[in-house]
UniProtKB/TrEMBL annotation:
Protein name: Protein p34
Compartmental location: Cell membrane
Primary residence: membrane
One Pfam family hit: Cation_efflux
Organism of this sequence: Phreatobacter oligotrophus
Length: 298
């Protein structure tokens, strides 16, 4: 199965998992009457919406380059992550409203054991799927899946905290704990939404690869450019699962075009073997253009 097919399959499964978790959490709220559990269920609605957005994004990003989009459609995944962040913020505002109502009129919880068990089962299902999204998203280089997984992780953490808090509220009779927990969940969601949107903006602004990856690429160029003199002006950016990479390669002035092309082919093969899906542009220059400050060829 092709990589993009796997990404789409995982994205579609996220919708199914999201709907199941939403149903379980809403059932837990009905059984207990807890505002905190209601806020947990409300966040699951956002999970379903974000899963749908992610599925649409990975489907679009997998489309090949065309006349109107010669560099492909990979950046749509960053747009989807921003949209997810907006939905997260909206969910947090709705939860804060419910928490405020609970502060004004606290009510004693029913303490329904079955409701708490149902909520716990939903949390465990979310935790397992969160691990799948983040690990597979990184492996398949899908920002949309990773973003969905990170959002789901905040849901897992907040759900665990809510469950413990509701147990304490039920055991102690302190009704005020219920809306307080809902407010804490809302603040946690707001922080996750802000971080998600800020990370996505970096992709939209063509942020360079992390320094550790740049070092690996420089080492590959140095080790596989035999016959050239140096490489300089390395520039990188990401668009979905595709890495865009370009640099200048300085060769002896007497070298033939055919020989220079052979070096470029060798470099492209080595870089793609390490980076994966990549669009590589190499500008060949004569030795008079050497800057003596770039990548030294071994």
């Amino acid at each position: 199965m092709a990589k993009i097919d796997r990404v789409q399959l995982i994205a579609l499964m996220s919708i199914v998992i999201g709907v199941v978790v939403l149903a379980l959490k809403y059932l837990a709220f009905v059984l207990t009457g807890s505002i905190a559990l209601y806020s947990d269920a409300l966040e699951s609605i956002v999970n379903v919406v974000t899963a749908i957005v992610a599925a649409l994004a990975v489907r679009t990003s997998g489309r090949p380059a065309d006349k109107d989009h010669p560099y492909g459609h990979g950046k749509v995944e960053y747009f989807s992550a921003v949209i997810v962040g907006v939905f997260i913020v909206v969910a947090a505002i709705l939860i804060l409203r419910e928490a405020w109502d609970g502060f004004r009129e606290p009510k004693v919880l029913s303490g329904d054991t079955m409701g708490l068990m149902v909520n716990g089962a939903a949390g465990l299902l979310n935790a397992g799927w969160c691990w799948v999204l983040v690990s597979q998203g990184r492996k398949l280089r899908s920002p949309a899946l990773v973003a969905d997984g990170h959002h789901l992780l905040t849901d897992v953490v907040s759900s665990a905290g809510v469950l413990v808090g509701v147990l304490l509220a039920t055991a102690t009779g302190w009704a005020i704990l219920d809306p307080a927990l809902a407010a804490i969940v809302a603040v946690n969601i707001l922080w996750a939404g802000w971080k998600l949107m800020s990370d996505s903006v970096g992709g939209l602004m063509d942020k360079a690869l992390p320094e550790s990856e740049l070092d690996r690429i420089r080492a590959l160029i140095s080790a596989n450019a035999e016959g050239a003199i140096e490489a300089h002006d390395l520039r990188t950016r990401m668009a979905g699962k595709t890495t865009f990479l370009e640099f200048h390669l300085v060769v002896p002035g007497t070298m033939s075009v055919d020989a220079a092309h052979t070096i470029c082919d060798r470099l492209e093969q080595a870089i793609r073997g390490e980076v994966g899906h990549a669009q590589i542009t190499i500008h060949v220059e004569p030795e008079a253009k050497a800057k003596h400050s770039g990548i030294v060829v071994l």
